[in-house]
Amino acid sequence: MRNNIVHPGADELTYEIREIVEAGRELEKKGIRMHWENIGDPVAKGVTIPEWIKNIVSDIITNDDSSYGYSPTKGLLEARQFISDLRKKESGVTLDPEDILFFNGLGDAISIIYTYLNRGSRVIGPNPAYPTHSSAEGAHAGSRHITYRLKHHRNWLPDVEDIRNKVKYNPSVAGILIINPDNPTGMVYPKRILEEIVNIAREFDLFLISDEIYANISYGAERMVPLYEVIGNDVPAIVMRGLSKEVPWPGARCGWIEVYNKKTDPIFARYIKSLVDAKTLEVCSTTLPQKALPKIMSDARYHPYLKEKALEYHKRADAAYRIFKEVDGITALRPEGAFYMSVVFEDSVLNKSQSLPIANQEAKEYIEHVITDVSLDKQFAYYLMAGAGFCVVPLSGFNSDLYGFRITLLEANTEMFEENLRTIAQKIKEYLRS
């Protein structure tokens, strides 16, 4: 073309969670029955939405014609006021409804947050990184996402010294990203760690982003501490929440941000205005889930329902830990939140010559063709798909320098869940011996 129309950050836009599906679908065409462990969609995994939630949504659709119309740019006042009141009740936090902004899911929020960040400003995030954040942040800057280490030999705890050093010696860093509970590791940030990160932000005049989409899916010994409980009244912050994982209602595309301490910094306040202005151009977010949100979350059945689901994930996390800890050559820590578990291959146990037997000749030929130029953990993931019919996401797809993979804790059938994990564990043993 006459001009180069490609964005300088285009190469950073990767999303292995869905991209690996392409290979899985090809293998299905060749006769491989696939178990999809790649994406955190509870509905796709068979989670049944409670009838009382369906009735709330049905009643709104049937009796409230305004649910079919536009909402205000920031979102319905009734939904924003409910969230504001909820924060006051939960933690005594004052949150102005005008400082809440709804989006079409947190993917939309993430895209806008990084798109309208000054090109020269960076946000440092955890490694392994959730690819929606890491890709969007890297794309906005036209450079690879900057990360801080999560220590896989120490319960995936953030390396606070690593954060401090990278912030100190990289003046382009303007913000720190927290994902709590974490995806893909299932780690929950301890309060003391959050306080240290807040102190770094305070010392270097940074803002914070805390993605808390799994805030109500926490089941370990460590209590999930929302960022707004520890930031005080001086550190600017954006907290991200949504309906997709806990209701669960991912198809609603309903997420929102809560802005804290906006008035403490005029630059941060102007940045937040740019997010609102960008949302104005988009007109508004989906109305129906905003109508349903206060009714669902204020229902007496909601919190018992959340506790029941968290207990289920807790049991599966324990089972997964029990099964994988018997496998040499890997580290698989027990998750404490969300519904994921990350398995890490120890140093030097993977090499290009390893493989798994593949009975299906077409599948074998396909895999041997596509593994020619992939990371070592992705090679394992491809062999696992072709040889055993399990689609997992390699950790290298999470912008990580660790080799491993992520599985979900979503399979509701206990026997099938444990049998699937035992099969994967056995395939790891076979692969490492090959």
What do these coordinates show?
The N and C termini lie far apart (49 Å). The protein folds into 2 domains: 10-47 and 303-433, Aspartate Aminotransferase, domain 1; 68-297, Aspartate Aminotransferase, domain 2 (3-Layer(aba) Sandwich), CATH 3.40.640. It has helices at 16-29, 51-63, 77-91, 105-115, 131-141, 160-168, 191-204, 266-282, 287-297, 302-324, 361-370, 376-388, 414-433; strands spanning 35-36, 100-104, 122-127, 147-151, 157-158, 173-179, 207-211, 237-242, 254-260, 330-332, 340-345, 390-391, 393-394, 404-408. The protein has an 8-stranded mixed beta sheet with strand order 2-9-8-7-6-3-4-5, sandwiched between helices. Strands 10-11-14-13 form a 4-stranded antiparallel beta sheet. Strands 1-12 form a two-stranded parallel sheet. 42% of the residues lie in helices and 15% in strands. With 434 residues, it is of the alpha/beta class. It has 13 helices and 14 strands. It is globular.
Sheet with the most strands? Answer: 8 strands, mixed
The overall strand count is 14
Q: How many structural units, i.e. domains?
A: 2
Mean of all residue-level pLDDT scores: 93
- Do you know the CATH topology of the largest domain? Aspartate Aminotransferase, domain 2
Give the name of the CATH superfamily of the largest domain.
Type I PLP-dependent aspartate aminotransferase-like (Major domain)
Estimated structural class: alpha/beta
Number of helices: 13
